[in-house]
Amino acid sequence: MISSGDYAPPEAQIDWLTGMMRGSAVQEATKTLRDMARLFHDADSLRRMDENTVVYRVQWTEPVAQGTTGGLFWGSTIIEPGRVGDEYFMTHGHFHSRRDRGEYYGTIGGKGLLVLMDESRATRTDAMFPGSLHYITGGLAHRVVNTGDEPLLFGACWPSDAGHDYSSIKAKGFGARVLLRGGGPAVIHA
Ligand code: PAN
Ligand code: ZN
What we know:
By secondary structure, this protein is mainly beta.
């Protein structure tokens, strides 16, 4: 029920210029190269890098419990520019545990590629740039790759009962990698 009490600041706020969130309800996770060990294809280049290098950071708010039907979560992700060998920094990527749950991604700053893969491993990419809005259909695994020289910032909204399934991506990856080729990014299918 909504009561007409005194003004209370929201428990989560977002700076739309930077994507950064703050407030008592905001949770945060940082992913370093150590956390992403087997996701990049060039193990030799990875070994030569500092494993504490930050690849990306996620801030999010869960206003209802995970698993709640009909609720929504919001998150902001910031992927640093960089590469492991010829492979651009990226998120882990995942399917939603409930395969029929979709998601919105919206780019705030930077540029990159949204990699989408279906259960048959058919993989395609969408260009991400400031203002690009991406409806991710349920059943598609999704990963973001920063192909630029600046941090790539995007907001995401997903159902509170979607859940995250990282296992098949950890085991088999996506059907394509985004690699530096001839001075720019190229999508190389497996
Ligand atoms: C996003 C992602 C976020 C980090 O909030 O969780 O960008 O990517 P990984 O979870 O793949 O590491 C989302 O897709 N939520 O469902
Ligand atoms: Zn997701």
